[in-house]
Amino acid sequence: MPPFRYVQTVRFGDIDHAGIVFYPRFFNYCHIAFEELFGQGEYCRVLDERRIGFPAVHVECDFQRPLRFGDRVAVDVQLVRMGGRSLTLRYVLSKEGDPSGATCAEAKITCAIVNLDTFQSVPLPEGLRRLFEALKP
User: Fold this and answer.
1) Would the pTM count as exceeding 0.90?
2) What are the tens digits of pLDDT across the range 33-60?
3) Per DSSP, what are the bridge partners of residue 75?
């Protein structure tokens, strides 16, 4: 089991005319998992009260297998790299319950750590550093 997993159902609005998940939705699934790893409501507190943001500065994704309406997509999140003012996370998306365990998509997203008032980069606070360190494989 990965350090963090979030599972959600593919909704009708996630699919395109071909009946498969429209590719930008994979990034949305990754971001939802990112929010969920903070815990219930904590991500909003980090943004609103601590004024720390995590804008994506680089994304890459390999798409390997389709997801369809009603599938349960598991998003596994792991830490790839943590710098002083940025971090890179790996997201592996698969169909929950698929006996093959085949990957549907794999993304790497690098986020800067910024002060939301100035949009200047800032060091990752210690408490958040521990949160992300727990995602080491």
Assistant:
1) yes
2) 999 999 888 999 999 999 999 999 999 9
3) 6, 93
SS3 89: strand
CATH architecture of 4-133: Roll (3.10)
DSSP count for the chain of H helices, then E strands: 3, 7
CA distances from 116 to 1, 82, 94, 112 (A): 34, 20, 33, 11
Residue 45's φ and ψ, nearest 5 degrees, are -65, -40
Q: How far is CA 30 from the centre of its chain?
A: 3
Q: How does pLDDT run across 78-115, given as a tens digit for each residue?
A: 999 999 999 999 999 999 989 898 999 999 999 999 99
Q: Where are the domains positioned within the chain? A: 4-133
Tokens of 73: 């997509």
Distance CA 85, CA 112 (A): 6
Record the tokens describing residue 20, joined without a space.
């498969």
